[in-house]
Amino acid sequence: MWSAAYGLIALAVVAFVALYAALHTPDLASVNLADQLYNAKKWLADSLPSLPRTDRRTHFVVSTNIVKVKVADVTASGRTFPVHLPVGYKLVKSDSNLLYELYLNVTLCSPTALHGGAAAALYVVELGHSVSQLPWLEVYAAVPRDVTRYYNWLYSYYTAWGRPPTVGLDPRVGADVDAGLVELVKAEWALVYNATSGATTLYVAAPPSAPYILVVDYPLTIPLACPPR
Amino acid sequence: MIALRDILIFAGLMALAAAVIASLFPVGEGVSAVPACSDCAFKLTGGYWIRQYGNYASFHHGTREVARYGWAYIDGFPLNIGEIMGCDPMYVHVLDGAAYVSCRGGDGSVFGNKVLNSLPWAVEISADPSRPGCTYTVDAAVNESATIQLYVYDEGGRLVYSASSPSPATFTFSLPVAGTYRMHVYAPPLLDQWYTLQARVSITASKAAVYTSNNTQDLRPSVSLKIFDLTNYWKRGYTSVTVRINPAGASFTLSAPSNAFADYLLAWEDCRSCSCDATQDLYKDEVWRLTFTPTGPVFARIYSQGGLWHEVYADGRLIYTRNKDGPNNDRYTGADPTITVRFVSEDSEMDAEATFTKVCAWR
After folding, report:
1. Is the distance from CB of B16 to CB of B23 less than 8 angstroms?
2. A/B interface, count of CB pairs below 8 Å
3. A20 CB-contact burial (10 Å; exposed 0-12 / middle 13-18 / buried 19+)
């Protein structure tokens, strides 16, 4: 009888020690950030054409996963029709261990000259990134092989949809490249970090004929256009 | 024979002995040490806390430091030097020696700093004075789906405009009469903002003064043009107003205009020293009325007299002459939002000019 009681007490002590040790042991897990980063960017790349678009600053300010556009008129083959120019992005995707946030906003776009004297369009882009480094940042300019054909192609979407298509984003990113309408050329770019304001600015010089530039954080490819002034 | 009971008693005693020894041991005091890894994730229970120092962050258990990392981030925000944070359980992710700490499991434990600031609400106001009245456009948005309501009240607290629309909303409305208005943009509980809208006409003038009631003084030579602002009388519902303009009490009676944004009576004197005895003739050599109508400012002649020649200009164009050759238009319609009128006399000392500009302001 007494021995059974001792046994129970001993069992309780063992259980307590085992439980205490188990509860106070750190749970170690491996973290595969590379895959998570890729998945987050892939998810954003896939959902980019379906993100809501707005031309109102207030809507852009209060929302996330949104594209800011400017409405502009383009003329091709004697027809004038409206298009949307993507000029800003607020993108968020979190994976289990990772928060991927990207903020892009074209603040200025003006004609400039390169060192060799060639004309270029200078894009000044505000950039915010949740992961400190952008090791794979690349910037391309989309140069149409034939400007009239390119805008006629956009016009066909305008008539089919009855709403303005977004340059570079519709019907999906890279559709114009696949159709052989534009050629991607490497654009000159520089990333400038201002330690005083904590702001990062991306400067891009693109050929003046390019309707948009592509900022690539592989596999995420983001078109940005030059807003009309 | 060794019974199960004896094994349990022995194991229990051993465990007790181990716990006592472990509690006496200076490291690993009853709990496991925090792993000192550079890239890993783990969960800590048992009263750990973290403190940020100048060049490192350390995990403590009780008073004992158990691990050091480069810097500590709590939910994506870095700790300040000297700050302390602790919770139970604590989720820790270590990347390149920096510790990312969260008290919530799952999606709370993340690498990466927050860079997007999404405000709960945003309101943007713009105004166009070149359209009838003051045409305001209000863009409003809140960061969740909600209906935004907009109310505009005049000085008397009367509701002059109201509308509601789902966020993001754009409201466009026109204030037909000059005045100060209060605007309420309302989407409870996120957005509850009041704004003041000032729809008015700004006057810059030379040799002129602006009055809101009678003025019978002889103010020559500094003032040759008296501008009487009648807008407030029409707003108060008067159907006609009599304005006394000179020491003899000469007056002009005007009836209420329809749909006027602002209304002015302009009384001008052409001569510096004459008519001193006959004060009933003062400030009535040219009497004109300027009314901001929905189709633009209308400048219309009411009365003229005097022996000197006059020229009346509107927006730089000569529209009326007296005692000399020239056009004789009694009425001129300008374009919003600005009109400039000028009275020129043979006695050039009395030349007067006034510019009326519709201003649609807010704050």
Report:
1. no
2. 146
3. middle
Type of residue at B162: S
Best of A14, A62, A67, A202 to mutate (most B CBs within 10 Å, chain B): A62
Considering only the beta carbons, identify the residue of B8, B35, B109 that sits closest to A97.
B109
Helix H, strand E, coil C: the string for chain B is: CCCHHHHHHHHHHHHHHHHHHHHHCCCCCCCCCCCCCCCEEEEECCCEEEEECCCCEEEEECCEEEEEECCEEECCEECCCCCEEECCCEEEEEECCEEEEECCCHHHCCECCCCCCCCCEEEEEEEECCCCCEEEEEEEEECCCCEEEEEEECCCCCEEEEEEEECCEEEEEEECCCEEEEEEEEECCCEEEEEEEEEEEEEEEECEEEECCCCCCCCCCCCCEEEEECHHHHHCCCCEEEEECCCCCCEEEEECCCCCCEEEEEEECCCCCCCCCCHHHCCCCEEEEEEEECCEEEEEEEEECCCCCEEEEECCEEEEEECCCCCECCEEECCCCEEEEEEEECCHHHCEEEEEEEEEEEC
Q: From the CA of A71, how many Å to the nearest CA of chain B?
A: 16
How far is the first Cα of chain B from the last one, in angstroms, to the nearest whole number? 94
Contact A31 B39 (CB under 8 A): yes
Task: Tell me if A28 and B40 make a contact (CB, 8 A cut-off).
Answer: yes
Measured CA to CA in angstroms, residue B137 lies from B67, B151, B171, B194, B320 at distances of 58, 13, 6, 15, 39
Q: Is the ipTM of this complex over 0.90?
A: no
Spell out which residues of chain A touch residue B19, defining contact as CB-CB under 8 Å.
17
Least confident of B20-24, B54-58, B152-156, B308-312: B20-24
Q: How many CA atoms lie within 13 A of B360 on its CB side?
A: 22
Is 0.80 surpassed by the pTM of this model? no
Determine which of A37, A99, A103 to mutate to test the interface with B (most B C-beta atoms within 10 Å).
A99
* Contact between B114 and A101 using a beta-carbon 8 Å cutoff: yes
> Cα(B48)–Cα(B65) distance, rounded to whole angstroms?
10
Query: Using H for helix, E for strand and C for coil, what is the string for A191-216?
Result: EEEECCCCEEEEEEEECCCCCEEEEE
| A101·B93 Cβ contact <8 A | no
Residue B222, exposed/middle/buried by CB under 10 A (0-12, 13-18, 19+)? exposed
Contact A29 B42 (CB under 8 A): yes
Q: Average pLDDT for consecutive 10-residue bins of chain A (229 residues)? A: 79 84 69 83 93 92 93 88 94 85 93 87 92 76 92 93 92 90 92 85 92 92 88
How far is the C-alpha of A205 from the C-alpha of B352, rounded, in Å? 55
Those of residues 155-214 in A touching chain B at CB distance below 8 A are none
> Could you give the dihedral angle defined by the CA atoms of residues B38, B41, B43 and B46, in that order, rounded to the nearest 10 degrees?
0
Query: Residue A80: exposed, middle, or buried by beta-carbon count in 10 A (0-12, 13-18, 19+)?
Result: exposed
Separation of alpha carbons B286 and B289, rounded Å = 10
